[in-house]
Every structure is written in structure tokens, then in C-alpha cells.
Amino acid sequence: MLILTTGGTIDKIYFDATSKYEIGEPTIPHIFKEAGVTVPYQLVSLLQKDSLEMTDEDRALLHKHCSETAESQILITHGTDTICETAEYLQDIPHKTIVLTGALAPARFRETDAIFNIGTALGAVQSKTHGVYVAMSGHIFPAGSVRKNREAQCFEPITPLPLA
């Protein structure tokens, strides 16, 4: 499995009361170690950007890495503001299972969704069929079917799910 990190809130480090931050080293190795994860993986820290700063060139670089790797399972950590757009950008890559995830609060915070989201993404990348997915808010959404609801601080389907 290949893990690509691009930055985002999940890897942010805050320094002072004015909320100045920078993107730190990837937190996935620490999270996997604490959780006892033994899945073999290769980690590439591709970018260290807030997703609002991601450009088409950044997405093209991510696309290139996903397309050219021999790995068929790819987990990507990404900022939540543009994670849905990036997932859609990667949809034309065949024969790969690509799962993007992020966090609404940094992984280094005591209260964070990061660890849960990474666990969900790890399970998804190993069990879903080929395609591109976003693992957030306890769901695994196919790319193109999800949006961030900033007001509710969650991810939701673009078309409401039918009631069971």
C-alpha cells in the first residue's frame, strides 16, 4: 500500500494563541504505531499544504504519483476544504483503489476525528473495489457524490441517502 500525504489540518501544528500554524511531519506513522497497525506500507510526503492552497499543478503531481505507482491501494491524507475536488480529479485513474481522508481537527489534538478517519480509510482502501473514495464522517463516499457541510462540520452525500 502507498500512503501519500499532502498536508491539511490532519498534520497541522499550532504554535500560539493567535492560531499560527504550519504543516508538520505526517502523523500517520505515529497513529499506526499507537494502534498496532502491521499493514506494510510506503509513505511519501508529497506536499505540505493547506488544501485551500492546492493548485492544479499540485493535483497533477498527485495524479502522476497515483498513476505511476505499481501499488493498487493508495491512501491519501488531504485537507478537507478541497478533498472532494481532488477526489474527482483522480477519478480517471484505472485499476487502483484510492481513498482520501483528512480531519476537521489536527491529529495532534486531544479531540480529533483524524484517528477515526484514518482507520476508516485504511479499512476502505483494503476492501473497496477499484475507484476513488472519500472517507470522512464515518462514511466512505464515492468521488463525485460528497460535499463538505461547513455549517454542520461534517461530510454528506450530495444527493440524500434513501431512508432504510
Topology of helices and strands:
Blueprint: E1 2-7, E2 12-14, E3 21-23, H1 28-35, E4 42-49, H2 56-68, E5 73-77, H3 83-89, E6 97-101, H4 114-127, E7 131-136, E8 139-142, E9 146-149, E10 154-157
Parallel strand pairs: 1-4, 1-5, 5-6, 6-7
Antiparallel strand pairs: 2-3, 7-8, 9-10
Enumerate how many helices there are, as a single number: 4
Biggest sheet statistics: 6 strands, mixed
Number of strands: 10
Architecture per CATH nomenclature, i.e. the level-2 architecture: 3-Layer(aba) Sandwich
Q: What coarse outline follows from CA principal-axis ratios?
A: globular
* Radius of gyration, taken over Cα atoms and rounded to an integer in Å: 15 Å
Strands side by side in the biggest sheet: 4-1-5-6-7-8
Give me the CATH superfamily.
L-asparaginase, N-terminal domain
- The CATH class assignment is Alpha Beta
Q: Could you tell me the strand content as a percent range?
A: 25-35%
Domain L-asparaginase N-terminal: 2-151
Enzyme class: hydrolase
EC number: 3.5.1.1
Pfam family, one: Asparaginase
